[in-house]
Give the backbone structure.
Amino acid sequence: MFEYEDEYQLRYIYHTNQHNNAYLVELNLDNYDDLFNSWDGSALDRKELDPELSHFLERASYELPLKEKVELCFYLPEDKQDEGVEADSRATIKNNFRMNLFFIDQDLKNNNKKIMTYIVMGLLFLITAYLIPENKDLSLLISLLMEGLFVGGWVFLWEAFSIFFFGSRELKEKKKRYLRYLNSDIVFKYRE
């Protein structure tokens, strides 16, 4: 029931393409350069998306259900129409999504390395704490060392758990959203 109501309300916020039922993420532009970071002096095929546009696309992606198709629709003045720049812009936008996916994959690999390191360190601390023999002469010092090793071991294991279940999950969710954009259609429409 709630899912239907949410989808119904989204249809008021986002238009849909009547042919494929994809949600339209629509943006009005004055020219093609509005798509890209004005500080980026690279060639068009290497330009970075405008930060505000990136933020808008990311927010829109989280508003729309992941299972739904999305289509990016850019409106420009009719006198700005240039099929060559349009094709290059489309390719550059896709390259930006690929770049974001690359960095997410790098972050996931780093998280996996951290997880393994924290698990190994945590287990080493716990095993060392269990293997320290109790000595009556240094009982306070040994007790403090053992407690420190136990606490440190559990902290390392908790951190590994936290990264695996929370940090990596968020990155995987973000990756799915960028993959959806990468596979979506990018349409340029022109207004008079």
Observations:
- The chain is about 60% helix and 10% strand.
- The longest strand covers residues 70-77.
